[in-house]
Amino acid sequence: MFRDVVLGLGNNPVVENVIKRYGMQMGASRFVAGHTLPEAIEEVRAINRQGIKATLDHLGESVTTERAAAEARDSYLAMLEAIQQSGIDSNVSLKLTMLGLSFDADLAERHLLEIVEKAAHTNNFVRIDMENSPYTAQTLTLFEKAYAEFPGAVGVVLQAYLYRSMDDLRRLSSPPRNFRIVKGAYMEPVSVAFPSKADVDENYLRLVETSLELGNYTAVATHDEQMIGRVLKYVHEHGVARDRFEFQMLYGVRFSLLQSLAQQGYRTRVYVPYGEDWYGYYVRRIAERPQNLLFFLKTLVER
């Protein structure tokens, strides 16, 4: 309920104007690793020194012109080149609507294949983020096309709050592939998504367990300490090798917990976003935890 209210308010032009005006000074910077690629590279370098990998994301989504989509493609090609040149330990994550999916699926496919090809040639990896449900089927289709050409260089995200995700997981797991499992951060109707947090949590665990059973490399993306404990219990009881999964968290959230997991010898990764187009991303972070909204309101009142 809290998440849906916040996401709904986030679409209000007045709310958007306030947050865009004050957000970076009052909380958004906690979740965004700078405005430029060099700033993000240096932040990843610091993260790497603590034994934690990263995935870089140039913030943006739902572009409406071919020029903007081409600029997004170019930013990812430059990102992959910068990662190789800098020597940091990071792959990349991207949203297909940033590459033009919302208005031209063929264009988005061409841009995606260029980026994944570059990743393959630089010994890197592209994670295709999952957006809201109108794009789920198209996203998985483009993932399959990219995987067919560059199988070791691309993976995708599955959202536990969608009813369809278990069927998608089973269908896409032959041969085994690389999945990031998340709970989901968009406002979705009950016709496509579990409305209950308890149901989402249970489906999340089932997806992780099933993904591991099917032989996939599985990125366990959650800040939920109880869920992490349940995953650890499962992998210990079933003898799952540590090189078959990793724990992932967002930049600015529960970093001490990720550090603890890294110190215990588990693979860990931080999702590190950067760029100017941070509004939609920040609203979803507020929606995930009431404390984030309270912090923003407190600093706004004090300003």
Give the low-confidence spans.
Answer: 5-10, 292-303
The portion of residues forming beta strands comes to: 5-15%
Q: Which H/E pattern describes the elements?
A: HHHEHEHEHEHEHEHEHEHH
Order of strands side by side in the largest beta sheet?
1-2-3-4-5-6-7-8
Rg over CA atoms: 18 Å
Mean pLDDT: 88
Helix content: 40-55%
CATH architecture: Alpha-Beta Barrel
- Briefly, what CATH class? Alpha Beta
Shape: globular
Strand count: 8
Tell me the span between the first and last alpha carbons.
Answer: 29 Å
Query: Number of domains in the coordinates?
Result: 1
In DSSP terms (H or I, runs of 4 or more residues), the helix count works out at 12
Largest sheet: 8 strands, parallel, barrel
What is the CATH topology descriptor?
A: TIM Barrel
Structural class: alpha/beta
If you had to describe this structure to a student in words, what would you say it looks like?
The chain has a single domain, classed as TIM Barrel (Alpha-Beta Barrel). It is 50% helix and 14% strand. The chain is built from twelve helices and eight strands. An eight-stranded parallel barrel has the order 1-2-3-4-5-6-7-8, surrounded by seven helices. α4 packs parallel to α5 (105-121). The longest helix is centred in the N-terminal third of the chain and has 21 residues, at 66-86. The chain is globular. The two termini are 29 Å apart. The relative contact order is 0.16. Residues 5-10 and 292-303 have low confidence and may be disordered.
